[in-house]
Automatic annotation (TrEMBL):
GO MF, any single term: transaminase activity
Organism for this UniProt entry: Geodermatophilus normandii
Highest taxon above the source species: Bacteria
Biological classification of the source: Bacteria, Bacillati, Actinomycetota, Actinomycetes, Geodermatophilales
Family note: Belongs to the DegT/DnrJ/EryC1 family.
Keyword Protease tagged: no
Membrane-spanning residues: none
Name used for this protein in its record: Perosamine synthetase
Length: 386
Protein backbone atom coordinates (compact mmCIF):
# COMPACT_ATOMS: atom_id res chain seq x y z
CA UNK A 1 0.00 0.00 0.00
CA UNK A 2 1.26 3.43 -0.82
CA UNK A 3 1.17 6.20 1.70
CA UNK A 4 -0.84 9.17 0.54
CA UNK A 5 -0.21 12.64 1.84
CA UNK A 6 -3.78 13.65 1.07
CA UNK A 7 -6.00 14.06 4.13
CA UNK A 8 -8.42 11.17 4.67
CA UNK A 9 -11.33 13.54 4.27
CA UNK A 10 -10.12 14.92 0.92
CA UNK A 11 -13.05 15.70 -1.34
CA UNK A 12 -12.93 14.82 -5.01
CA UNK A 13 -11.32 17.49 -7.20
CA UNK A 14 -13.78 19.79 -8.93
CA UNK A 15 -12.79 20.07 -12.58
CA UNK A 16 -12.95 23.36 -14.46
CA UNK A 17 -14.96 21.65 -17.18
CA UNK A 18 -16.36 18.22 -17.93
CA UNK A 19 -18.10 17.26 -21.17
CA UNK A 20 -21.67 16.03 -20.86
CA UNK A 21 -21.64 12.69 -22.67
CA UNK A 22 -23.96 9.74 -22.03
CA UNK A 23 -25.00 6.27 -23.13
CA UNK A 24 -26.68 7.75 -26.20
CA UNK A 25 -23.39 9.06 -27.57
CA UNK A 26 -21.70 5.72 -26.85
CA UNK A 27 -24.49 3.86 -28.70
CA UNK A 28 -24.37 6.25 -31.66
CA UNK A 29 -20.60 5.84 -31.99
CA UNK A 30 -20.96 2.06 -31.77
CA UNK A 31 -23.60 2.13 -34.50
CA UNK A 32 -21.31 4.09 -36.78
CA UNK A 33 -18.53 1.58 -36.21
CA UNK A 34 -20.87 -1.38 -36.83
CA UNK A 35 -22.05 0.22 -40.09
CA UNK A 36 -18.54 -0.09 -41.49
CA UNK A 37 -18.56 3.55 -42.61
CA UNK A 38 -16.21 5.31 -40.22
CA UNK A 39 -14.68 8.03 -42.42
CA UNK A 40 -16.63 11.05 -43.69
CA UNK A 41 -19.99 9.75 -44.91
CA UNK A 42 -23.74 9.89 -44.32
CA UNK A 43 -23.50 10.81 -40.64
CA UNK A 44 -21.30 13.81 -41.40
CA UNK A 45 -23.91 14.97 -43.94
CA UNK A 46 -26.70 14.51 -41.37
CA UNK A 47 -24.70 16.37 -38.71
CA UNK A 48 -24.11 19.27 -41.09
CA UNK A 49 -27.82 19.50 -41.81
CA UNK A 50 -28.82 19.36 -38.14
CA UNK A 51 -26.16 21.91 -37.20
CA UNK A 52 -27.19 24.36 -39.93
CA UNK A 53 -30.80 24.10 -38.77
CA UNK A 54 -29.83 24.67 -35.13
CA UNK A 55 -27.78 27.82 -35.74
CA UNK A 56 -30.02 29.17 -38.50
CA UNK A 57 -27.36 28.90 -41.21
CA UNK A 58 -28.03 27.92 -44.81
CA UNK A 59 -24.92 25.78 -45.13
CA UNK A 60 -22.68 24.02 -42.63
CA UNK A 61 -19.46 22.25 -43.61
CA UNK A 62 -17.98 19.82 -41.09
CA UNK A 63 -14.21 19.80 -40.69
CA UNK A 64 -11.56 18.30 -38.43
CA UNK A 65 -11.54 21.14 -35.86
CA UNK A 66 -12.20 24.86 -35.52
CA UNK A 67 -8.60 25.76 -36.35
CA UNK A 68 -8.94 24.12 -39.78
CA UNK A 69 -12.35 25.79 -40.20
CA UNK A 70 -10.74 29.21 -39.63
CA UNK A 71 -7.84 28.33 -41.93
CA UNK A 72 -10.33 27.27 -44.61
CA UNK A 73 -12.31 30.51 -44.15
CA UNK A 74 -9.23 32.66 -44.83
CA UNK A 75 -8.27 30.44 -47.77
CA UNK A 76 -11.79 30.80 -49.23
CA UNK A 77 -11.46 34.58 -48.99
CA UNK A 78 -8.17 34.44 -50.85
CA UNK A 79 -6.25 36.00 -47.96
CA UNK A 80 -2.51 35.52 -48.43
CA UNK A 81 0.97 37.08 -48.46
CA UNK A 82 0.94 40.87 -48.22
CA UNK A 83 -2.44 40.93 -46.48
CA UNK A 84 -3.15 41.91 -42.89
CA UNK A 85 -5.85 40.29 -40.81
CA UNK A 86 -6.97 41.97 -37.60
CA UNK A 87 -7.40 39.58 -34.66
CA UNK A 88 -7.74 39.95 -30.92
CA UNK A 89 -4.63 38.87 -29.05
CA UNK A 90 -7.06 38.02 -26.24
CA UNK A 91 -8.01 34.60 -27.63
CA UNK A 92 -6.84 31.05 -27.91
CA UNK A 93 -3.67 31.25 -30.01
CA UNK A 94 -5.21 29.41 -33.00
CA UNK A 95 -7.07 32.61 -33.93
CA UNK A 96 -3.78 34.36 -34.71
CA UNK A 97 -1.91 31.28 -35.98
CA UNK A 98 -4.28 30.60 -38.88
CA UNK A 99 -3.47 34.02 -40.32
CA UNK A 100 0.19 33.04 -40.51
CA UNK A 101 -0.73 29.64 -41.98
CA UNK A 102 -2.16 31.38 -45.08
CA UNK A 103 0.95 33.57 -45.32
CA UNK A 104 -0.72 36.78 -44.11
CA UNK A 105 0.15 38.95 -41.11
CA UNK A 106 -1.96 38.98 -37.92
CA UNK A 107 -2.47 42.48 -36.52
CA UNK A 108 -3.53 42.55 -32.89
CA UNK A 109 -6.37 44.81 -31.76
CA UNK A 110 -7.34 45.39 -28.15
CA UNK A 111 -10.65 44.26 -26.67
CA UNK A 112 -13.36 45.74 -24.52
CA UNK A 113 -12.65 45.29 -20.81
CA UNK A 114 -16.23 44.20 -20.09
CA UNK A 115 -16.97 41.76 -22.93
CA UNK A 116 -13.42 40.65 -23.79
CA UNK A 117 -14.28 41.21 -27.46
CA UNK A 118 -13.20 43.44 -30.35
CA UNK A 119 -15.24 46.63 -30.83
CA UNK A 120 -15.49 49.05 -33.78
CA UNK A 121 -13.26 51.46 -31.82
CA UNK A 122 -10.45 48.96 -31.11
CA UNK A 123 -10.53 47.62 -34.69
CA UNK A 124 -10.62 51.07 -36.32
CA UNK A 125 -7.34 51.90 -34.56
CA UNK A 126 -5.37 49.22 -36.41
CA UNK A 127 -6.91 49.22 -39.91
CA UNK A 128 -4.52 49.92 -42.78
CA UNK A 129 -4.89 49.81 -46.58
CA UNK A 130 -3.59 46.22 -46.36
CA UNK A 131 -6.34 44.98 -44.02
CA UNK A 132 -8.20 42.22 -45.87
CA UNK A 133 -10.19 40.64 -43.07
CA UNK A 134 -10.99 40.73 -39.36
CA UNK A 135 -11.43 37.60 -37.27
CA UNK A 136 -14.06 38.53 -34.70
CA UNK A 137 -14.02 36.16 -31.73
CA UNK A 138 -17.12 35.56 -29.60
CA UNK A 139 -14.78 35.06 -26.68
CA UNK A 140 -15.80 32.55 -24.01
CA UNK A 141 -19.25 32.48 -25.60
CA UNK A 142 -19.92 36.21 -25.15
CA UNK A 143 -21.25 37.44 -28.50
CA UNK A 144 -19.30 40.27 -30.12
CA UNK A 145 -21.45 42.91 -31.78
CA UNK A 146 -20.88 41.83 -35.38
CA UNK A 147 -23.58 44.22 -36.59
CA UNK A 148 -21.64 47.24 -35.30
CA UNK A 149 -18.37 45.79 -36.62
CA UNK A 150 -19.95 45.08 -40.00
CA UNK A 151 -21.03 48.72 -40.25
CA UNK A 152 -17.38 49.73 -39.91
CA UNK A 153 -15.89 47.04 -42.15
CA UNK A 154 -18.38 46.37 -44.96
CA UNK A 155 -18.11 49.81 -46.58
CA UNK A 156 -14.33 49.33 -46.63
CA UNK A 157 -14.59 45.93 -48.35
CA UNK A 158 -13.02 44.16 -45.36
CA UNK A 159 -14.31 40.62 -44.75
CA UNK A 160 -15.50 39.45 -41.34
CA UNK A 161 -14.74 35.89 -40.20
CA UNK A 162 -16.42 34.92 -36.95
CA UNK A 163 -14.44 32.72 -34.58
CA UNK A 164 -17.44 31.15 -32.87
CA UNK A 165 -15.36 28.30 -31.41
CA UNK A 166 -16.90 28.88 -27.97
CA UNK A 167 -20.26 30.32 -28.98
CA UNK A 168 -22.66 27.57 -29.99
CA UNK A 169 -25.97 28.38 -28.31
CA UNK A 170 -25.09 32.03 -27.67
CA UNK A 171 -27.37 34.65 -29.23
CA UNK A 172 -26.80 37.95 -30.98
CA UNK A 173 -29.63 40.46 -31.49
CA UNK A 174 -32.12 37.68 -30.74
CA UNK A 175 -30.69 35.19 -33.24
CA UNK A 176 -28.29 32.28 -32.76
CA UNK A 177 -24.61 33.13 -33.28
CA UNK A 178 -23.89 31.85 -36.80
CA UNK A 179 -27.16 32.98 -38.35
CA UNK A 180 -26.44 35.66 -40.93
CA UNK A 181 -22.65 35.22 -40.61
CA UNK A 182 -20.74 35.28 -43.90
CA UNK A 183 -18.24 32.80 -42.47
CA UNK A 184 -18.34 31.49 -38.91
CA UNK A 185 -16.24 28.69 -37.41
CA UNK A 186 -17.31 26.50 -34.47
CA UNK A 187 -15.35 24.04 -32.33
CA UNK A 188 -16.36 20.66 -30.91
CA UNK A 189 -13.33 20.30 -28.63
CA UNK A 190 -14.32 18.95 -25.17
CA UNK A 191 -13.50 22.35 -23.66
CA UNK A 192 -16.52 23.78 -25.52
CA UNK A 193 -20.20 22.86 -25.00
CA UNK A 194 -21.01 20.42 -27.82
CA UNK A 195 -18.16 17.95 -28.34
CA UNK A 196 -17.15 15.30 -30.84
CA UNK A 197 -13.69 14.80 -29.29
CA UNK A 198 -12.16 16.92 -32.04
CA UNK A 199 -14.23 18.61 -34.70
CA UNK A 200 -15.29 21.86 -36.27
CA UNK A 201 -17.95 23.43 -38.46
CA UNK A 202 -17.83 26.28 -40.96
CA UNK A 203 -21.14 27.98 -41.74
CA UNK A 204 -22.00 30.30 -44.61
CA UNK A 205 -25.14 31.52 -46.39
CA UNK A 206 -23.54 30.82 -49.79
CA UNK A 207 -24.14 27.46 -51.49
CA UNK A 208 -21.22 28.24 -53.78
CA UNK A 209 -18.81 28.94 -50.92
CA UNK A 210 -20.00 25.80 -49.13
CA UNK A 211 -19.48 23.64 -52.22
CA UNK A 212 -15.93 24.92 -52.57
CA UNK A 213 -15.30 24.41 -48.84
CA UNK A 214 -16.51 20.80 -49.13
CA UNK A 215 -14.15 20.26 -52.05
CA UNK A 216 -11.20 21.92 -50.32
CA UNK A 217 -11.60 19.88 -47.13
CA UNK A 218 -11.24 16.75 -49.26
CA UNK A 219 -8.09 17.36 -51.31
CA UNK A 220 -9.92 19.48 -53.91
CA UNK A 221 -11.74 16.39 -55.26
CA UNK A 222 -14.55 17.02 -57.75
CA UNK A 223 -16.62 14.11 -56.41
CA UNK A 224 -16.57 13.12 -52.75
CA UNK A 225 -15.98 9.52 -51.74
CA UNK A 226 -19.53 9.43 -50.32
CA UNK A 227 -21.02 10.66 -53.61
CA UNK A 228 -19.02 8.14 -55.61
CA UNK A 229 -20.19 5.37 -53.33
CA UNK A 230 -23.84 6.49 -53.59
CA UNK A 231 -23.81 6.86 -57.39
CA UNK A 232 -22.75 3.24 -57.84
CA UNK A 233 -21.18 4.14 -61.18
CA UNK A 234 -17.50 4.49 -61.94
CA UNK A 235 -17.02 8.25 -61.80
CA UNK A 236 -13.35 9.15 -61.98
CA UNK A 237 -12.72 12.17 -59.78
CA UNK A 238 -10.70 15.20 -60.72
CA UNK A 239 -8.63 17.38 -58.45
CA UNK A 240 -9.74 20.90 -59.28
CA UNK A 241 -7.40 22.84 -56.99
CA UNK A 242 -4.87 22.03 -54.28
CA UNK A 243 -6.96 21.11 -51.25
CA UNK A 244 -6.49 19.86 -47.71
CA UNK A 245 -7.50 16.88 -45.64
CA UNK A 246 -9.73 18.62 -43.11
CA UNK A 247 -12.38 15.90 -42.91
CA UNK A 248 -14.47 14.87 -39.91
CA UNK A 249 -15.23 11.17 -39.38
CA UNK A 250 -18.69 9.58 -39.22
CA UNK A 251 -17.92 8.34 -35.69
CA UNK A 252 -17.46 11.95 -34.57
CA UNK A 253 -20.57 13.10 -36.45
CA UNK A 254 -22.66 10.34 -34.83
CA UNK A 255 -21.64 11.68 -31.41
CA UNK A 256 -22.26 15.25 -32.54
CA UNK A 257 -25.82 14.47 -33.65
CA UNK A 258 -26.65 13.31 -30.13
CA UNK A 259 -24.78 16.21 -28.52
CA UNK A 260 -26.83 18.74 -30.49
CA UNK A 261 -30.02 17.41 -28.88
CA UNK A 262 -28.50 18.32 -25.49
CA UNK A 263 -27.51 21.85 -26.44
CA UNK A 264 -30.52 23.74 -25.09
CA UNK A 265 -30.24 21.95 -21.76
CA UNK A 266 -26.49 22.59 -21.66
CA UNK A 267 -26.89 26.32 -22.19
CA UNK A 268 -29.76 26.62 -19.69
CA UNK A 269 -27.78 24.78 -17.05
CA UNK A 270 -24.62 26.86 -17.53
CA UNK A 271 -26.58 30.10 -17.41
CA UNK A 272 -28.26 28.97 -14.24
CA UNK A 273 -24.89 28.06 -12.66
CA UNK A 274 -23.47 31.46 -13.68
CA UNK A 275 -26.45 33.27 -12.10
CA UNK A 276 -25.85 31.35 -8.91
CA UNK A 277 -22.15 32.34 -8.91
CA UNK A 278 -23.23 35.95 -9.36
CA UNK A 279 -25.49 35.79 -6.32
CA UNK A 280 -22.97 34.00 -4.13
CA UNK A 281 -20.08 36.26 -5.12
CA UNK A 282 -22.05 39.50 -4.76
CA UNK A 283 -20.19 40.31 -1.56
CA UNK A 284 -16.78 40.21 -3.20
CA UNK A 285 -15.66 43.83 -3.50
CA UNK A 286 -14.41 44.90 -6.90
CA UNK A 287 -14.56 41.49 -8.59
CA UNK A 288 -16.63 41.21 -11.75
CA UNK A 289 -18.13 38.08 -13.31
CA UNK A 290 -18.56 37.97 -17.09
CA UNK A 291 -22.15 38.67 -18.15
CA UNK A 292 -24.47 39.13 -21.12
CA UNK A 293 -23.73 42.16 -23.28
CA UNK A 294 -26.65 44.48 -24.17
CA UNK A 295 -26.95 42.89 -27.66
CA UNK A 296 -27.05 39.19 -26.82
CA UNK A 297 -26.66 36.26 -24.46
CA UNK A 298 -23.64 34.13 -23.60
CA UNK A 299 -23.63 30.34 -23.23
CA UNK A 300 -20.99 30.73 -20.46
CA UNK A 301 -18.56 28.45 -22.28
CA UNK A 302 -16.13 30.01 -19.83
CA UNK A 303 -17.35 31.73 -16.70
CA UNK A 304 -14.53 34.17 -16.00
CA UNK A 305 -14.02 36.41 -13.02
CA UNK A 306 -11.97 39.61 -13.19
CA UNK A 307 -10.21 40.38 -9.92
CA UNK A 308 -9.85 43.93 -8.67
CA UNK A 309 -6.41 45.45 -9.20
CA UNK A 310 -5.96 45.73 -5.42
CA UNK A 311 -7.04 42.15 -4.63
CA UNK A 312 -5.38 40.83 -1.44
CA UNK A 313 -3.96 37.89 -3.43
CA UNK A 314 -2.83 37.85 -7.04
CA UNK A 315 -4.47 35.66 -9.63
CA UNK A 316 -1.75 32.99 -9.73
CA UNK A 317 -1.59 32.74 -5.94
CA UNK A 318 -5.38 32.44 -5.93
CA UNK A 319 -5.23 29.57 -8.43
CA UNK A 320 -2.74 27.89 -6.09
CA UNK A 321 -5.10 28.26 -3.12
CA UNK A 322 -8.01 26.90 -5.11
CA UNK A 323 -5.90 23.97 -6.26
CA UNK A 324 -4.96 23.22 -2.65
CA UNK A 325 -8.69 23.12 -1.89
CA UNK A 326 -9.23 20.57 -4.66
CA UNK A 327 -10.60 23.05 -7.16
CA UNK A 328 -9.31 23.14 -10.67
CA UNK A 329 -9.74 26.71 -11.95
CA UNK A 330 -7.71 28.16 -14.83
CA UNK A 331 -5.94 31.38 -15.62
CA UNK A 332 -8.15 33.59 -17.76
CA UNK A 333 -8.03 33.72 -21.52
CA UNK A 334 -4.51 33.96 -22.92
CA UNK A 335 -2.96 36.83 -24.86
CA UNK A 336 -1.22 35.61 -28.00
CA UNK A 337 1.04 38.68 -28.32
CA UNK A 338 2.74 37.78 -25.01
CA UNK A 339 3.65 34.22 -26.10
CA UNK A 340 7.09 33.19 -27.41
CA UNK A 341 5.49 32.28 -30.76
CA UNK A 342 4.88 36.03 -31.30
CA UNK A 343 8.03 37.40 -29.71
CA UNK A 344 9.51 38.15 -33.15
CA UNK A 345 6.64 40.54 -33.94
CA UNK A 346 6.72 44.27 -33.13
CA UNK A 347 5.62 44.64 -29.51
CA UNK A 348 2.21 46.28 -29.24
CA UNK A 349 0.50 47.74 -26.20
CA UNK A 350 -2.95 46.28 -25.53
CA UNK A 351 -3.94 47.58 -22.09
CA UNK A 352 -7.35 45.90 -21.74
CA UNK A 353 -6.03 42.58 -23.05
CA UNK A 354 -3.08 42.70 -20.65
CA UNK A 355 -5.24 43.53 -17.66
CA UNK A 356 -7.77 40.80 -18.48
CA UNK A 357 -5.21 38.09 -19.11
CA UNK A 358 -3.25 38.94 -15.94
CA UNK A 359 -6.10 39.32 -13.47
CA UNK A 360 -8.88 36.99 -14.54
CA UNK A 361 -9.58 33.35 -13.87
CA UNK A 362 -12.01 30.82 -15.29
CA UNK A 363 -14.27 29.26 -12.66
CA UNK A 364 -15.46 25.64 -12.86
CA UNK A 365 -18.80 25.30 -14.66
CA UNK A 366 -20.08 22.03 -16.08
CA UNK A 367 -23.45 20.47 -16.67
CA UNK A 368 -23.21 18.00 -13.79
CA UNK A 369 -22.00 20.61 -11.28
CA UNK A 370 -23.97 20.45 -8.04
CA UNK A 371 -24.81 23.20 -5.57
CA UNK A 372 -22.35 21.58 -3.16
CA UNK A 373 -19.56 21.73 -5.78
CA UNK A 374 -20.29 25.36 -6.39
CA UNK A 375 -20.44 26.20 -2.69
CA UNK A 376 -16.95 24.74 -2.28
CA UNK A 377 -15.62 26.96 -5.08
CA UNK A 378 -17.28 30.04 -3.62
CA UNK A 379 -16.11 29.32 -0.07
CA UNK A 380 -12.53 28.94 -1.25
CA UNK A 381 -12.72 32.14 -3.28
CA UNK A 382 -14.21 34.14 -0.42
CA UNK A 383 -11.68 32.76 2.07
CA UNK A 384 -8.81 33.85 -0.15
CA UNK A 385 -10.15 37.21 -1.28
CA UNK A 386 -11.93 38.70 1.72
C1 LIG B 1 -10.93 26.40 -28.86
C2 LIG B 1 -10.74 27.58 -29.70
C3 LIG B 1 -10.20 27.48 -30.99
C4 LIG B 1 -9.66 26.19 -31.55
O1 LIG B 1 -10.62 25.20 -31.68
P1 LIG B 1 -10.15 23.71 -32.06
O2 LIG B 1 -11.43 23.01 -32.41
O3 LIG B 1 -9.49 23.13 -30.86
O4 LIG B 1 -9.24 23.81 -33.22
C5 LIG B 1 -10.13 28.63 -31.76
N1 LIG B 1 -10.54 29.82 -31.28
C6 LIG B 1 -11.05 29.96 -30.05
C7 LIG B 1 -11.51 31.30 -29.58
C8 LIG B 1 -11.14 28.84 -29.20
O5 LIG B 1 -11.61 28.99 -27.96
Amino acid sequence: MSVSSAPVTALPTIPVMRPWLGEEEAAAAAEAVASGWVAQGPRVAAFEEAFARRVGATEAVAVSNCTTALHLALHLLGVGPGDEVVVPSFSFIATANVVRHVGAEPVFADVDLVTGNLTPATVAEVLTPRTRAVIVVHQAGVPADTVALGALLEPRGIAVVEDAACAIGSTLHGRPVGEGAQLAAFSFHPRKLVTTGEGGMLVTPSAEVAARARRLREHGMSVSAAERHASGSVTPEQYLEPGFNFRMTDVQAAIGLVQLTRLDAMVARRRERADRYRELLAGLPGARLVEDPPWGTTNYQSCWLLLPEDAPVGRDALLGRLSAAGISARRGIMAAHLEPAYADRPRVSLPATERLTADSLVLPVFHQMTDADQDRVVDALLAALR
